[in-house]
Amino acid sequence: MSRPARPVPRAAWLLPALVLLGACTPQPGGAPGATTSPRTATPTASPTLTTTPPSPDATAPSTPQQSAPPGAQPAPGATSAPPADPRKRTTLVVTFGAWNSASGAVEVSGYVPLVEGDGTCTLTLTQGASTVTARSTAYPDASSTSCDLLSVPRASLGPGSWQASVDYASSTSLATSTPLIIEVP
After folding, report:
1. Domains in the chain and their CATH numbers?
2. Which of 12, 70, 152, 181 registers the highest number of CB atoms within 10 A of its CB?
3. 42 near 147, Cβ under 8 Å?
4. What is the full DSSP assignment across 71-118?
5. How far, rounded to the nearest angstrom, does the alpha carbon of residue 4 sit from its chain's CA centroid?
6. How far is 164 from 177, CA to CA, in rounded Å?
């Protein structure tokens, strides 16, 4: 006797659909109707776990700073603050971010709405004082620059709620996603 088919959860078909969509997107420099080989996610670094204890200065009482007298001018050539980063700020859109029980990892992907060829994406997962990161190369497509799948395996994570955010950096642009919460079983 046959069993009735179980419904497939939405998350199970979302990632293959995103991969298929990415494979159908023309690559820059390609002629209409030309075929290209599919991209393969190649992480450039393994996730790293970093625990940062609070700074001893964080609990120390603040010391009043002396201010310059009214009308005083800084010495010629002196700067009071480092120059701001000249790179353009843009938006990073997270297209997928969740625990994937099939791969046993937190997986996140996204894109920036501009075309660049030298970007890097960094996923940062934070839980209390624990921080885990994963990096991937970004690649341009027809109208945006996409992050390869960013993945952190269960072995690098404890159970519970993790705050996830993705940063994008290139020679000319910077972006940070809106943080999201991912539950790790």
Report:
1. 86-179 (2.60.40)
2. 152
3. no
4. T--PPTT--SSPPPP-SEE---EEEEEEEETTTTEEEEEEEESS--SS
5. 40
6. 9
Tokens of residue 84, six digits: 């701001």
Average pLDDT of span 12-40:
41
Dist. CA 146–CA 114, nearest whole Å: 9
Q: How many residues does the structure list for the chain?
A: 185
Residue 4 clears pLDDT 60, i.e. is over it: no
Q: Is the pLDDT of residue 112 over 80?
A: yes
Average of per-residue pLDDT across 137-151: 96
Neighbouring CB atoms inside 10 A of 63's CB total: 5
Structure tokens at 162: 């993790």
This prediction's pTM: 0.59
Strand duo 173-176 + 88-89: pairing: parallel
Task: List 138's β-bridge partners, or say none.
Answer: 147
Q: Round to the nearest angstrom and report the end-to-end CA distance of the chain.
A: 35
Question: What's the pLDDT score for residue 23?
Answer: 41
Kindly tell me the burial class for residue 110, based on how many C-beta atoms sit within 10 Å of its own C-beta (0-12, 13-18, 19 or more): buried
Contact 109, 147 (CB under 8 A): yes
Number of C-beta neighbours around residue 6 at 10 A: 6
Q: Which residue has the tokens 């996204």?
A: 110
Q: How confident is the model at residue 130 (pLDDT cuts 50, 70, 90)?
A: very high
